Amino acid sequence: MDEPTVHRRLTAILAADVATYSRLMGMDEAGTHAAWKAHRADLIDIKITESKGRIVKLAGDGFLAEFPSVVNAVACAATIQRGMRERNAGVPRDRRIELRIGINVGDVIVEAGDIYGDGVNVAARLEGIARPGGIVVSGGVRDNVGNRLDLRFEDMGERTLKNIDRPVRAFSVLPHSLPAKSAIGAAMNPPERWAAEKPSVAVLPFTNMSGDPELEYFSDVITEDIITDLSKISGLFVVARNTTFIYKGKPVSVQQVSQDLGVSFILEGSVRKAGSRVRVSAQLVDGRDGGHLWADRYDRDLTDIFAIQDDITHAIVDQLKVKLLPEEKKGIQRVPTDNVEAYGYYLRGRQFLHRHSRPYYVLAKRMFAKAVALDPLYARALAGIADCDSFLFLHYNEDVSIDGILATSAKALDLDDGLAEAHASRGLALSLRERYPEAMAEFDRAIACDPNLFEAHYFFARACFAQGKLEEAARHFQRAADVDPDDCQALLVVTGVLRSLGREEDMMVAARNGVARAERELALHPANPRPAYLGAISLVALGEIDRAKEWADRALAIDPDDGLAKYNVACFYSLMGDHERAIDLLLELLPSATNERKRWVRYDSDLDPLRTHPRFAKVIEQLG
C-alpha cells in the first residue's frame, strides 16, 4: 500500500490568544464570549481576509492563521493590535480583551486544511512570550520584512522556548518613528500596552540644564545608566534606550509618550552640572492621567552621582511596589568605579567614541586611558580602549596590535564577564585574525548581555560580510541602525549589501534614511570625512549624481590619506563608470590594506562593474 503524500509549503504563521482569558470568563462568561465574538467578526476576521490570509483553526481564546506573505502577516498583526486598542479605549482595564501575537515563517505540513510542524510550534511559543497587546516575531520574519513596514524591531535576544530544540532569535514589534508634532495622536500606531503583566516604565532623556551643550553627554549617560539599572529588575518592563531617545528634544506630553510606547509610567528629569556639584531632578508620572507619583531633587557633590542614580532606581522600585531579587539588588548597587574623576574621563571617551572618526577615536582612547590610570580596575574604560583600537585598526589601518586588543578585552572580562562591550571588542579582534567561530560566539555573548549594543551588531555584521554571509550581515547592520538612531554608517554600508541580495526596495529605503543621517552628521562635524564618502555611494543609488560627486570630492579633500575614504570613493567611481580612476585608487590602497578590507573587495557589489575590466586582474593579484 502506498504511503499518503505529505504536502509541504513555506508559509507565514500567526498564532494569537487572549491574555487572562480564564480570568475574564470567570468574571463574566457571557459578556466575555460575546465581546470576543464581536472582536473577531468586526475586526480580526476582516483584516486577515484583507491581508490574503486564512484562519486555520480556532480555539476558545485564540486562533492560528497563515499568510502567503510574511510582510502581510506582520502588517495584519499590527493593524489588529491597533484596532483592538481602539476598541478597548472605553473599557475598564481589568475587563479588556487583549491579544498576544507570535509570528514565524517556516515549512509546514498541510493536511485536511490544517497545518503542522516546527514552524507552527515556534509561532505558538513566540506568542507565549509576547506581552498583552504585543507582537513577537522570529528572526526569519524580521529579516523578511526588512524596511518595508513603518515598524521597529527591538531585539529580545536568543530565547529558549518550551519544546523547541534550539534557541530562537525573537524581536518585539514597535512603531518605526514618531509622527510630526502636529500629527501626534492621529498618525501614530502605538505599540503594545504591557501593564497587565508587569509595571512598565519608559525613561525619557534627562534634560541638560547646565547651559553648556558640551555637557549634553553627561545628562545622556545618566539617563542610560538609569535605564540599565532598571532593566536588571525582572519585575519591571523597561523600554530600551534606542526607543526612548527618539523623543530627545521633542516637546511631547507624558500621556502621549505613554500611549505611543504602551507603558504605564514615565520617568523624566533634568541634570545641572557646575564644577564639582551636580543637581539631578527626577519625577515619576502616571502616563494614564499625568499624575505625579514621586518627585525629588538631589543637590550633591559630583562624587555622589552613583548614589543619586541608585536612589532614583530604588524610589521607582518602591513606588511601583516591585520586589527586588537578591542578585538584582547586588547588580544595582554595584558601581562601575569608585573614582568620580575616572568616571568623568570615561563619559568623555564615550562621547568622542560615538563620533566615529580617526581624531575622535584617538581622543576617546586618551580619555579611556586616563580613566584606567585613575582606576586600573575600571572594566568599562578598558573595554573602551579595546573599542577604539578595534575601530582604528579596522577603519584606518593604524599600527594597533590585535594581540593587544585581545589582552585588553580579556582583562575587562576578567573584571566583569557580563560586559557586552568587551565581548564585542574581543569578537572583532578574533574576526580580524579570521578566527570566525570564536568571534561569532563572542558576538552572541555580547548581544545576550546587551541586545541593544551598537558595536556588537556592527562588528558582527562586518564579520558576517567578510565571510560572505550577506543575509546575516544585512540583519545586523539594520539592527545596529535601529539601536543608534543617530548613526549613519550602518545604513549606508548596508545599502550595498542589500543590492547584492537583490532587495532593491530595502536598498532605496536604507539609502534615503542613511543620507538623511549623514547630512545631520556632516552639519555637526564637518571635518569628519566618513559620512561624506559613505553617503556618496548611497546618493548614486538614489540617482543624485552631482551631489554624490560633491560628497566624494569633499571626503578626499578632508583627508586624502584616509584609506577608507579612498576605498569608498573607488566604489563611487566604479558605480559611475569611471573604472580607471576606481582601479587606480584600489591599487593605491591595497598594499597596506587589512585582510578584512581585502575580503570586502571580494564581496562588495559596488565593485562589480570593475570585475570584467582588464586591469582588475592586478587588483586580484594584490588580494593574495
Give the number of domains.
Answer: 4
Pairing-aware structural class of the strands and helices?
Answer: alpha/beta
Spatial shape: globular
| Total DSSP E strands | 14
Q: Quote the distance from N terminus to C terminus.
A: 60 Å
CATH topology of the largest domain: Alpha-Beta Plaits
Percent of sequence in beta strands? 15-25%
Biggest sheet descriptor: 8 strands, mixed
- What is the fourth-level CATH superfamily of the largest domain? Nucleotide cyclase, GGDEF domain
Number of helical segments?
26
**Unreliable residue runs:** 176-197
Helix content: 40-55%
Question: What is shown here, in short?
Answer:
The protein is of the alpha/beta class.
What does this entry look like structurally?
By secondary structure, this protein is an alpha/beta fold. It folds into 4 domains: 7-181, Alpha-Beta Plaits (2-Layer Sandwich), CATH 3.30.70; 200-333, Rossmann fold (3-Layer(aba) Sandwich), CATH 3.40.50; 338-476, Alpha Horseshoe (Serine Threonine Protein Phosphatase 5, Tetratricopeptide repeat); 488-624, Serine Threonine Protein Phosphatase 5, Tetratricopeptide repeat, CATH 1.25.40. 54% of the residues lie in helices and 16% in strands. The strands form 2 sheets. Strands 1, 2, 3, 4, 5, 6, 7 and 8 form an 8-stranded mixed β-sheet that branches. The termini are far apart.
